[in-house]
Specification:
By secondary structure, the protein is mostly helical. It is built from 6 helices and 2 strands; from the N terminus they run αββααααα. It has helices at residues 10-13, 49-75, 77-81, 93-113, 117-144, 148-153, and strands spanning 32-37, 44-48. Helix 4 runs antiparallel to helix 5 (117-144). It is elongated and about 75 Å long. It starts with 9 loop residues before the first helix and ends in an 11-residue tail after the last helix. The mean pLDDT is 79.
Length: 164
Amino acid sequence: MERYFWHLNAAQADGMACVVCGADFLKERVTAVAIGRSPVDETQVFACKQPCAIRIADDAERMAHEMRAAANALRGEDLIAAGGDDTFCVDGHFGSLLRDLRTLAGTEALLATADEIPTVRFLLALTARHAETAMMRARLVLARTRTEDAEDSGDGGDPKEGEG
């Protein structure tokens, strides 16, 4: 993927000057390396090999590291890596349960207006699949969030446990 550089002067946008320090490649004897493109006309832009291109590479590496850390935090991987519980992270069981419940609410609304048998059958199959998945995920979240008090009193467990 090409990196685009904005806010360039005419010489930088034409590839005749460094996009970092502004060194004029026609007047100064520096080694230049292609580092991206100008968003205006898609021409290649250049930077001095030492130290400007290295600075751009270091900045890009730092930004990539920060973005990976932010993405991992959103997915809860930092919590999981630290031995934490992933139940309530965005991609955890509770997040999936909420998505299943939203799907069920949407299919309920569509079932209220559907009048063709194939559409109704499709929506019922979708409802059955997501209802079963939501039930399993709800039980899993209940089991993972069970406290010591709930275990002693029988609260928070599987509703079918008391049935005989």
